[in-house]
Amino acid sequence: MKLREIIRLPKQMLWALVMEGVETTRMINVFARHGSGKLRLTPAHRHPTPEELRTAVEQLKDIPRFLPFFVVVVVPLPGVTESYALVAMTLEKWLGHKIRLLPSQFRHIFHPDKKEPEKPGTK
User: Fold this and answer.
1) What is the pLDDT of residue 123?
2) SS (H, E, C) 36-66
3) Is residue 118 in a domain?
4) Which of 13, 58, 64, 103 has the least C-beta neighbours within 10 A?
5) In angstroms, what CA-CA distances link 7 with 3, 52, 62, 98, 111?
6) What is the pTM (predicted TM-score) of this model?
7) Would you say 27 and 56 are in contact if contact means Cβ atoms under 8 Å apart?
8) d(C-alpha 103, C-alpha 63), whole Å
């Protein structure tokens, strides 16, 4: 059973990289629509909803977590990516929700049973 999970891990990490890119593109689109709405360049029905803005802000918070992970993945030294992921997972486990080092998509891979903590003021 563990061997199957280990074999699937690179595919899941590649998929997480793709999904981070998709989420970042959506974030940029939402902020662009919000900015053009503030400048009154677009009609009111094109303005982003509060839920879209909240999701975009959460993704914006994900970018500083993603950049070190991306640099570590791009470095062509074997074992660097796994070491970084192991250190990040260990720190998150020890410190609980006080620190979040992994981007959201990678957190879903490494901690599939954990849900994101609810923010005050959300459903």
Assistant:
1) 46
2) HHHCCCCCHHHCCCHHHHHHHHHHHHHHHHH
3) no
4) 64
5) 6, 35, 27, 31, 17
6) 0.63
7) yes
8) 8
